[in-house]
Amino acid sequence: MRIGLFGGSFDPIHKGHLSIIKGAINNGDVDIVIVIPTVRNSFKRGKVLSAAPYRYFMTKAVIESEFSGNKVLVSDAEFSIPGISYTVSTLKKITSMNYLVPFLTYNGIKPKKALEEHTFFWLCGSDILPSFTHWYKPEEIISMAGLLVALRPGEECDIYEERERISKEFGFEANIESFVIDGVEVASSEVRITKDYEDVPKVAQEFIKTHNLYADKEVMDAVSDEAAEKFFLMAADLYEYLGEKRLLHTINVGLLSAKYALIHGADVDKALIAGLLHDCAKELEPQVQRDYAKERCGDTFADKKLLHSPAGAVFAKKRFDVDDEDILNAITYHTTGHGGATLLDKIVFLADKLEPARTYTDLTEMREVALSDIDAALRLCVGAVRKKFETQGRDIHPKTLEFMNALGV
């Protein structure tokens, strides 16, 4: 098969991206396209991009809604590639039969076809050609995959001249082809700034709204570079341990915790990390959770629904090298609260309940109050918890009773 590989940040994925995919397939240039959202983009470091899981799951949702069958697939390969997401590293992973065959068969390609000898093309715009030879190990890239260049109608780019120039620089014939696409003038960076989503697919628009993407730039601006780097790396690493819904929830809680910290004068860096990692142990094996919980708090959290809280503190320390007790305590008590809750503890507890994707009840009032008075919002929250538990005839955890008493509920 002729396989097109389309890597990008997709922050957000837009109609220009879809135009390239559709053009490559409809023109018969490739049999299938594998879309590969970058995880640790080599060109866009720091606070420029959204967390990788946001971009991956948004892209996956759009591709699944726009393309039926198995002509267009989405790969999570870069989550398992350590370090910066260089194109050459991604290509080595994707084109290896050890990865490709299971990936294709899992996505409905017949084993016989998956085992064929394939030709690979890296889909791109013509704007990359002038700088391509300055990429990381470009000769290796072109030896594994040709460049399949998307040209907009009327675009002035001499593919033959570019092929000759690049081939001369490499000392061998570079495989560079082109195809024409429908012109869609849109850039993800502009979408993030203007928040004009006209050229963003409906599914992506819904994802952006659900998770409140691009809404609070000032929050990340207030976070230190060191904490931001940890946040993005940890968010990517959590992909190994949490399913889609839980992972997106944890990222939402991290960012909302940082927002509350910025508003109410808590440590923004600590809030960001504590919120992100609050559920990090949620999907570990039950016995591992029990062992970690006991290590942290003895038998204080015997209820299996609560184990992940103290277990999360231990896992955060073992797996993510977090040793700040303020952060570890916020993780430990995010489900129950406790009598000596700090402002950071309160923030993470509340953000867990109010993050933007939460829809289990009408949270409008709590969300509004939380922007001006954390304790008042908490009183509304734990008051609702007390009422729910009493209605169901369930016992309230002693730590939660301490928390309620301290808040005057």
Descriptors for this entry?
Hypothetical protein af1432, 2 domains, Rossmann fold, single chain, 409 residues, six-stranded parallel β-sheet, elongated, alpha/beta
Topology record:
Layout: E1 2-8, H1 15-26, E2 32-37, H2 52-66, E3 72-74, H3 87-95, H4 97-106, H5 111-114, E4 119-125, H6 138-144, E5 146-151, H7 159-170, E6 176-180, H8 188-194, H9 202-211, H10 217-222, H11 225-237, H12 244-264, H13 268-277, H14 286-297, H15 308-320, H16 325-332, H17 343-354, H18 364-370, H19 374-392, H20 398-407
Parallel strand pairs: 1-2, 1-4, 2-3, 4-5, 5-6
Helix pairs in contact: 2-9, 3-6, 11-13, 12-13, 12-17, 13-16, 13-17, 14-15, 15-16, 16-17, 17-19, 18-19
The fraction of residues in strands falls at 5-15%
Largest sheet: 6 strands, parallel
Uncertain stretches: none
Overall geometric form: elongated
* Oligomer classification: single chain
| Termini separation | 66 Å
What is the architecture of the largest domain at the second tier of CATH?
A: 3-Layer(aba) Sandwich
* Estimated helix fraction: 40-55%
Give the class from helix and strand content and strand pairing.
Answer: alpha/beta
Tally of DSSP β-strands: 6
How is this structure best described in words?
- There is one protein chain.
- With 409 residues, the chain is of the alpha/beta class.
- The protein folds into two domains: 2-202, Rossmann fold; 216-407, Orthogonal Bundle (Hypothetical protein af1432), CATH 1.10.3210.
- Helix content is 53%, strand content 8%.
- The chain is built from 20 helices and six strands.
- It has helices spanning 15-26, 52-66, 87-95, 97-106, 111-114, 138-144, 159-170, 188-194, 202-211, 217-222, 225-237, 244-264, 268-277, 286-297, 308-320, 325-332, 343-354, 364-370, 374-392, 398-407, and strands at residues 2-8, 32-37, 72-74, 119-125, 146-151, 176-180.
- Strands 3-2-1-4-5-6 form a six-stranded parallel beta sheet, sandwiched between helices.
- Helix 6 links the parallel strand 4 and strand 5 (146-151).
- Helix 12 runs antiparallel to helix 13 (268-277).
- The protein starts with a strand and ends with a helix.
- The model has no long low-confidence stretch (mean pLDDT 94).
